[in-house]
């Protein structure tokens, strides 16, 4: 009966942090392997978009897919989109890394594409913020007349076509990974869709893999109607019971620790299958347990501690970013949607607050921009964070 050493605690709750056991994502990983294999054989394949609430492990899965591409010798680059930033600079950095990873043997061919990349990077809009201006560490002169028109759609298509050509030369591909894709600016979303459309028609070995909140498909569709056929959408959801159990048991058993069945029942009820919560409750439960096997009594002792930590780090940090008007809006959503955080209609929120819907639009739009809520469907609004309704109901507005 081993002692429970906190130093050996295997659980890792953290934003985008890979859990010790990536459970329940085998289907997505297998599907991506097929995509990579098909593209390697010159078969047409759609780019990929992962969607889901916060805490379901989209960033972890995105990183794992990137590792799979790197394992096949692909050139890869990753971007985290921000609502206030043009994609020109981050795409430049990401593609620079991808081209270096490809290790093309002909330096002249490589230099030609690097010249186009430099031209693309340096073609800033007049109102670009100083921090968005990037001086690329590329020793070749910028090419003139390619990817430097200033029209993001034209420039991105030309740049990605050239990058894909280099990859094709060496029998590999390029994969551009975009996290928080719902925050990409409108013109840039349109450019990404157009580039993916053009490259898929060419059969070029370049794909975009995006991850974002549940309303991302609507953002893409509003930009280009054909985006519904352009991307393969994978909805990333909570783990089912066997996968949640495996996420807890596999790392523990490597440390010669196990759980009683009742403890796993209690942990699944508490974490509700959300990977972030599975790690958070697992970590605290390990720390309070005296010995293996971990019992339901250990979980009962750990749960209030884990909830208090989540209240500060996971929920509170997000709540603190909201203004008083935005907090009032979210509390009204919680009252209407209940602890389960069901989607509610914006008109119901207005009635609940005794306000005209138009007067609440600024608060709602700001909450969407901050990534705290999303438009579930027309006229409906929901929290991006699981259990946020429950948190708000247990923390009344001041």
From TrEMBL:
Residues 1-24 are annotated as: Disordered. It comes from the Bacteria. Residues 168-334 form the Cytochrome c domain. Pfam families: AAA_16 (PF13191). Keywords: Heme, Iron, Metal-binding. GO terms for molecular function: electron transfer activity; heme binding; metal ion binding. The keyword Nuclease does not apply. This is AAA ATPase domain-containing protein.
